[in-house]
Write a structure and sequence with these properties.
heterodimer, A: mainly beta, six-stranded mixed sheet, four-stranded antiparallel sheet, B: seven-stranded mixed sheet
């Protein structure tokens, strides 16, 4: 089956820098994408989402970019803080399925922020 | 709101034993998902329910795995018999139709020795 994959398994940044985490997806039918953050010992937490009719969406300190041409998704974190250290997952699904939807996750990128 | 509640948090069992993982979704949520997380395979969808009905169980690895949702407030994932390769963190998540309402529990760390 088609899976969401990630380009880099780890990313190390200095506090205050901007972070960019990338994700490649292969299912062209996917129309909804989400970024999750998972801290050690916890379940994934929703960060931000984007639908396929958008190219960019901004939240507080986070921005998600979607390039449907090359099936690429990225998460930008501005002014990265130590508390941002976690594993980040992208996930995809298609909301048109009337019977319900399920997210398919990539393997994750570990973000490490040093002071 | 207490969120999605999973029990137990940790489970250590011997190979061949039956293991039952439990999940209480957020009240009012109509979809429930079971995921398994390992370092090698990441987060894998095992099965999901919509309005207590199993929609897709194609992710269930083998007949040793089974899941039930007898009512809107409770679901179980059972492994019988368990094997060492089943060792993983098992997550339950629930949502109310719209996918952005996907909330995960804290997971059950299963170790089969």
């Amino acid at each position: 089956g088609e899976n969401v994959g990630l380009h880099l398994p780890t990313l190390s940044v200095q506090e205050g820098d901007n972070s960019i985490i990338n994700c490649a997806y292969s299912n062209s039918a996917s129309d909804y994408f989400i970024w999750y953050k998972q801290e050690s010992g916890k379940g994934p937490q929703f960060i931000i989402d984007i639908r396929s009719n958008m190219d960019k969406r901004q939240g507080q300190r986070v921005t998600v970019l979607l390039n449907k041409t090359v099936k690429h998704l990225s998460l930008q974190i501005a002014a990265t803080q130590p508390g941002d250290s976690a594993v980040y997952f992208c996930a995809e699904t298609f909301v048109a399925n009337q019977a319900g939807t399920a997210l398919i996750f990539g393997k994750g990128t570990t973000l490490s922020v040093s002071s | 709101d207490a969120g999605v509640i999973q029990s137990p948090r940790h489970e250590v069992t011997e190979m061949g034993q039956e293991v039952t993982l439990r999940c209480k979704p957020i009240s009012g949520h109509n979809s429930l998902f079971w995921y398994r997380q390992t370092m090698m395979r990441g987060l894998e969808l095992l099965i999901y329910f919509n309005n207590n009905v199993p929609i897709d169980d194609s992710g269930m690895p083998e007949d040793r795995f089974s899941a039930k949702m007898p009512n809107a407030s409770f679901s179980t994932l059972k492994i019988q018999p368990s094997e060492p390769r089943d060792s993983a963190v098992y997550f339950c998540a629930s949502s109310l139709g719209v996918v952005e309402g996907y909330t995960f529990g804290s997971g059950t760390r299963l170790t089969v020795v």
